[in-house]
Every structure is written in C-alpha cells, then in structure tokens.
Design goal:
purine salvage; Xanthine_PRibTrfase; Rossmann fold; cytoplasm
Length: 195
C-alpha cells in the first residue's frame, strides 16, 4: 500500500535490527486519513468472506481495526490485556508473548460477544513472531467461530510470524512487508525481489 510505505520510509525510525518505531502515525500518534485508507484496503481484501466481527488486541491494533470494521459495517471486538471488573467470569482467554515488551500477557474476550456463528477478521498493527495473532486465533477457536483472515499493517517478514500463520492455513494480508532493518535501513520485500 503506497501511502503506508511512504509513511514508513519518511517517518519510521529503525531502533535496532528487530525494532521499527512508527509512533508518529500508527501506534502512539495516529494518522486518521491513513487509517481510513488502511480500513478501506482491508475491507476490499476480505469483503467476500462474509465477516461478522473484526477482532484485535488492545491497544495499537484498535485504530486500523476500527476503520476496517467501519468499512465492513460490522462490530469491532477488542481483546483485553487486563481483565476489568466489568468483564464476567465467562471469558475466552489466551496467553500472548509480546516481542517488544518482552513479557507474557493473558488476553480476554467475553463469551457473550463471540460465538460459533461468527466469521472473524483479525487485524493487528505489527506481525513479528506471530504470537499476538496466534493468541487471537486461539480465542476464536475456543468460541468455535471461524477465522476468515488476518490483516496486518506491517509485517516483519524476517521474524517468521507470517510464515508460521500461513503454514497453519490462515490467509494473511500484510500491507507492508519488511525484509530487513539491518544497518538502520528499512528494506521492503518488493525492493529485495527487484534487486
């Protein structure tokens, strides 16, 4: 997606060979026009899947997931990282390891909001090792619902999460696929294939 790639190249900051900081437009400060285009793109990719819910993990995935849900005219369901008092005992839960935070977290979704009739589109901001997406697919499986696809804003293809999800049969659509962050430079998959 051209607009996203331009933002990554202009405003993204490579912090290490594994970390790309995009807090100027995606996950701290959010560019609403870019999120609208991202939502439109994901909706176009998955419209034929008869999606009934969009599912994401708080908090960085909320912006692109909300715009996708809006474009598909379906509810957005946000998996919680902490179980609030208002969330009943009847929850689906999964463990997720965060690469950037270097910690394991339990995530929760109310059983009243997801069931076997649902066709779920999972949306997240980043895909590295695939742990967040796998946790969300686990929650969908507990509900006996169907994962209709996974939409990722930025995939760090060199970390293998995309390959893992695809090998399990999930359709993964990534809007920007990063081949490398070596030498402080963002190298995209398309650039590597063109060399």
């Amino acid at each position: 997606m051209r607009e996203l790639i331009e933002k990554i190249m202009e405003e993204g900051e490579v912090l290490s060979e594994h970390v790309l900081k995009v807090d100027r437009f995606l996950n701290h400060q959010v560019d609403p026009q870019l999120m609208k285009k991202i939502g439109e793109h994901f909706a176009d990719e998955f419209r034929h899947e008869r999606i009934t819910k969009v599912l994401t993990l708080e908090s960085s995935g909320i912006s692109p997931a909300l715009m996708t849900a809006y474009e598909l005219n379906v509810p957005l369901l946000v998996a919680r990282k902490r179980k609030p008092v208002t969330l009943s005992e009847n929850t689906y839960k999964a463990s997720v390891y965060s690469f950037t935070k270097r910690e394991e977290t339990e995530i929760f979704v109310s059983q009243t909001l997801l069931d076997c009739e649902d066709r779920v589109l999972i949306i997240d901001d980043f895909l590295a090792n695939g742990q967040a997406a796998l946790g969300l697919t686990d929650i969908v499986a507990q509900a006996k619902a169907h994962v209709a696809g996974i939409g990722i804003v930025i995939e760090k293809a060199f970390q293998g999460g995309g390959q893992l999800l695809r090998s399990r049969g999930y359709r993964v659509v990534s809007l920007a696929r990063i081949a490398s962050l070596q030498d402080g430079t963002v190298k995209l998959i398309e650039e590597v294939m063109c060399e």
